[in-house]
Design brief:
The protein is mostly beta strands. Helices cover 9% and strands 48% of the residues. The chain is built from one helix and twelve strands; from the N terminus they run ββββββββββββα.
Length: 184
């Protein structure tokens, strides 16, 4: 995805490991906070709330615990609307493949590692077309994900960013093979 082929919007997702309040902060390329993701403590599985910059909850992410494959659901919670499921996300394929399959109201998506097992780049595809590139940069206290999403009227950026949040959660679970570093 080169600059001259497609216009894209860049986001930075910052995951804070030791934060008691905000677990993820999502900013745009100008550094403006677009979304804040808070987590619920002392729960079985992940329970996350995504709020816009004004503090209005827009989505919820829930991990399903009773599945063979790692499974998450994303729900819309825009104010005044009834909660509805937007996406079902499952880990698929061999454990070393780092691949999530997403069935959403906007179609089917796949997030998977790009290149070798030691690569920190991932692709987000819809109908076999790359619509986003994710680059992971980790430190001992936080992880950054640089997310480039191709601009299109068909793309729901908030939902795509929620998918990347799920991808981050799937990678950090200690029992999940996606969380283990590549053996060189």
């Amino acid at each position: 995805m080169t600059e001259d082929q497609h216009q894209s919007t860049r986001y930075l997702i910052q995951e804070k490991y030791l934060s008691l309040e905000k677990r993820f902060t999502i900013t745009d390329n100008a550094g403006t906070i677009r979304y804040i993701v808070n987590s619920s403590f002392f729960t079985m599985g992940d329970k996350l709330q995504i709020s816009d910059a004004n503090g209005n909850e827009v989505m919820r992410i829930r991990q399903d615990n009773l599945h063979f494959h790692l499974t998450y659901r994303i729900f819309s919670t825009y104010s005044g609307a009834t909660e509805r499921e937007l996406a079902l996300i499952k880990r698929t394929g061999p454990m070393w493949q780092h691949k999530l399959q997403i069935n959403s109201i906007n179609g089917e998506y796949i997030i998977e590692k790009k290149g070798s097992t030691s690569s920190n780049e991932f692709t987000l595809t819809k109908n076999d077309n790359v619509i986003g590139i994710v680059t992971k940069d980790a430190s001992p206290t936080k992880t950054f994900y640089w997310v480039d999403i191709i601009d299109s009227n068909e793309q729901d950026h908030a939902l795509l960013l929620a998918m990347i949040i799920v991808f981050s959660c799937a990678q950090r679970l200690s029992m999940n093979p996606m969380a283990k570093p590549a053996i060189k």
